[in-house]
Automatic annotation (TrEMBL):
Residues 198-230 form the C4-type zinc ribbon domain. Residues 32-170 form a coiled coil. This is Zinc ribbon domain protein (DUF164 domain). The keyword Cytoplasm does not apply. The lineage of its organism: Bacteria, Pseudomonadati, Campylobacterota, Epsilonproteobacteria, Campylobacterales. Residues 11-184 form the CT398-like coiled coil hairpin domain.
Length: 237
């Protein structure tokens, strides 16, 4: 193969490798982000449950102050009842006392109900916290794995950059400019093989004359349809 063409094939393969690192790094970071998002969602849930528990505790405190009022009232009634004489007054006081006792009982039941709800909320909170710990652990181990992977990618990448630098130093500037111009629109398909006598960039059939040129590969040939640089693959490629 023509030396310049061979250099272009190599350069395009190097550029492809370099461009492939970005999505790899993105996908690693995306996995980390998913776990972080899960933790944020759990934290929000825990906060919500905490608020609900505070609200329930406030209701209990409120009910307790009613209980104190009812107890005070019952005491007051019994004090009054020692002083009253008439049947009618006693009856009225008894009614009042019964009402206060009913209210007291209802209030105590209400506290029991609220406490049971708080117990359920606390159980839910414990479950959420356990789940959070699990995700945090898997995030930590993922972070460790990823650190190694990112380091490996960084190593590979710097090797590829070295290769590119060496290659560029050896290349003809005009040919390089020509390549970069095609790369602007064709991205990583600026240099493509010909397979089954078709351009592997635009997939159009190459005429016999151009195909013969490509097979000889003693010159740089572009696709007559799309303008990409074409080459005939050798067995080791
Ligand atoms: Zn083409």
């Amino acid at each position: 193969m023509n030396k310049y063409l061979q250099q272009l094939v190599n350069l395009s393969q190097i550029d492809q490798k370099i461009d492939n690192y970005a999505p790899r790094i993105d996908s690693i970071n995306r996995n980390l982000q998913l776990k972080k998002d899960e933790i944020v969602a759990i934290d929000e849930n825990i906060e919500k449950v905490d608020n609900e528990i505070s609200e329930l505790k406030a209701q209990i405190a409120n009910t307790n102050s009613h209980i104190n009022e009812f107890n005070a009232k019952i005491k007051d009634i019994s004090k009054k009842s020692s002083a009253v004489k008439s049947e009618k007054e006693i009856k009225a006081l008894n009614l009042e006392e019964d009402l206060a006792k009913d209210q007291l009982e209802a209030a105590n039941e209400e506290i029991g109900r609220l406490e049971r709800i708080i117990d359920n909320k606390n159980e839910l909170k414990a479950e959420l916290e356990e789940k959070k710990t699990q995700i945090q652990n898997s995030l930590d181990s993922l972070n460790n794995e990823v650190a190694d992977e990112l380091k490996a990618i960084e190593n590979e990448r710097s090797k590829i950059y070295d290769q590119k630098e060496k290659l560029l130093a050896d290349m003809n500037q005009k040919i390089l400019t020509f390549y970069e111009k095609i790369r602007k629109w064709a991205k990583n398909t600026a240099v493509v093989p010909v397979r089954k006598q078709a351009c592997y960039g635009c997939f159009m059939k190459i005429n016999d004359k151009t195909y013969a040129h490509i097979i000889k590969s003693d010159d740089i040939t572009t696709c007559p349809h799309c303008g990409r640089i074409l080459y005939k693959e050798t067995i080791e490629e």
